[in-house]
Amino acid sequence: MNTPRGARRTDTRLSDGRELIYYDPADAPARAPLEDTRGLPAPQPQVELRTDPLTGDVITYATHRNTRTYLPPADQCPLCASKPGNPTEIPDHDYNVAVFENRFPSFAGPGRTEVVCFTSDHNRSFTDLSQGQARLVVDTWADRTAELGARDDVELVFPFENRGREIGVTLSHPHGQIYAYPFVPPRMQNLLRQARKHQEVAGSNLFADVLAAERKEGTRVVAENGNWTAFVPEAARWPVEVHLYPHRQVGGIDELSVGERDDFAELYLDVLQRLDGLYGEPLPYIAAWHQAPVRIDRELGYLHLELLSIRRAKDKIKYLAGSESGMGAFISDTRPEDVAETLRKAGQ
């Protein structure tokens, strides 16, 4: 079937009952999924949620994840398309974008965790995708956001990507994940708390006002197009930090128009290429979508993407030491205006 924005979606299941979804361009031939012949046992995740009485934060314990696959050789990658001698999580011989329920989920029962494979090519990264391929990933995120957000046990849908061993990636194949949280996580609660205070005082949306101020001031803007602006935030915590905002307030990726999705794909690839140009090699990063919660304070939210890197120099990593880990007070070695200027020059 076709998704609301035109991508062709094909649903099937893996041998242990987990859902697998293929996303192909709208004009691609109909896909006839191959059967997963691995005969996997049904997953038995061990998940427990506890609330910290001192902070109110929900902590998830998922002890089964300690046995998940860790940095296998390329010819044994479980995210590649299947081939003789290496049946994988994707039974077909090729794919464009594939999404499946995580075999080692962080949530079970309430909530859900999914893996999003951006391409079948093991040796590429998101940065290497064509604009059309990146655009298909955007449609995939949008479709998953809409479907997961409609579940009664989900409070916030969080697509993200970890890239690089320094970040803690356990599989090198180009992929991201989606956490459909059964609660509103701490960072989003903090953002909404600030947004609520701002709304009460200024009578306007905090995120929209931040975007307007950054576009007007200009020194921290990295790049922009008709529908999106990428900037280094004035109070950036991380050595390299770039936020991408749509010019129109929406709550989720699924609410973006065709033009907004096109412009995001174009700007995102531009920014990723600038990041890789900083030190002449792929930059380790976290790409974190901030979508409005499904039910609570949705009107206060504002969809945006935050790109974060712990690399503070070509051969140096920013570690979260005493002040950051013990007190949550960040001390940065880089100045936001300098990072923005460097990234602007990287595109010239």
Automatic annotation (TrEMBL):
<dbReference type="GO" id="GO:0005737">
    <property type="term" value="C:cytoplasm"/>
</dbReference>
<dbReference type="GO" id="GO:0033499">
    <property type="term" value="P:galactose catabolic process via UDP-galactose, Leloir pathway"/>
</dbReference>
<dbReference type="Pfam" id="PF01087">
    <property type="entry name" value="GalP_UDP_transf"/>
</dbReference>
<keyword id="KW-0299">Galactose metabolism</keyword>
<keyword id="KW-0119">Carbohydrate metabolism</keyword>
<feature type="region of interest" description="Disordered">
    <location>
        <begin position="24"/>
        <end position="46"/>
    </location>
</feature>
<comment type="pathway">
    <text>Carbohydrate metabolism; galactose metabolism.</text>
</comment>
<dbReference type="GO" id="GO:0008108">
    <property type="term" value="F:UDP-glucose:hexose-1-phosphate uridylyltransferase activity"/>
</dbReference>
<comment type="similarity">
    <text>Belongs to the galactose-1-phosphate uridylyltransferase type 1 family.</text>
</comment>
<dbReference type="InterPro" id="IPR036265">
    <property type="entry name" value="HIT-like_sf"/>
</dbReference>
<dbReference type="InterPro" id="IPR005850">
    <property type="entry name" value="GalP_Utransf_C"/>
</dbReference>
<dbReference type="GO" id="GO:0008270">
    <property type="term" value="F:zinc ion binding"/>
</dbReference>
<dbReference type="Pfam" id="PF02744">
    <property type="entry name" value="GalP_UDP_tr_C"/>
</dbReference>
<feature type="domain" description="Galactose-1-phosphate uridyl transferase C-terminal">
    <location>
        <begin position="196"/>
        <end position="305"/>
    </location>
</feature>
<feature type="binding site">
    <location>
        <position position="77"/>
    </location>
    <ligand>
        <name>Zn(2+)</name>
    </ligand>
</feature>
<dbReference type="InterPro" id="IPR019779">
    <property type="entry name" value="GalP_UDPtransf1_His-AS"/>
</dbReference>
<dbReference type="InterPro" id="IPR005849">
    <property type="entry name" value="GalP_Utransf_N"/>
</dbReference>
<keyword id="KW-0808">Transferase</keyword>
<keyword id="KW-0548">Nucleotidyltransferase</keyword>
<feature type="active site" description="Tele-UMP-histidine intermediate">
    <location>
        <position position="175"/>
    </location>
</feature>
<protein>
    <recommendedName>
        <fullName>Galactose-1-phosphate uridylyltransferase</fullName>
        <ecNumber>2.7.7.12</ecNumber>
    </recommendedName>
</protein>
<feature type="binding site">
    <location>
        <position position="173"/>
    </location>
    <ligand>
        <name>Zn(2+)</name>
    </ligand>
</feature>
<dbReference type="InterPro" id="IPR001937">
    <property type="entry name" value="GalP_UDPtransf1"/>
</dbReference>
<feature type="binding site">
    <location>
        <position position="122"/>
    </location>
    <ligand>
        <name>Zn(2+)</name>
    </ligand>
</feature>
<feature type="domain" description="Galactose-1-phosphate uridyl transferase N-terminal">
    <location>
        <begin position="111"/>
        <end position="185"/>
    </location>
</feature>
<keyword id="KW-0479">Metal-binding</keyword>
<feature type="binding site">
    <location>
        <position position="80"/>
    </location>
    <ligand>
        <name>Zn(2+)</name>
    </ligand>
</feature>
<keyword id="KW-0862">Zinc</keyword>
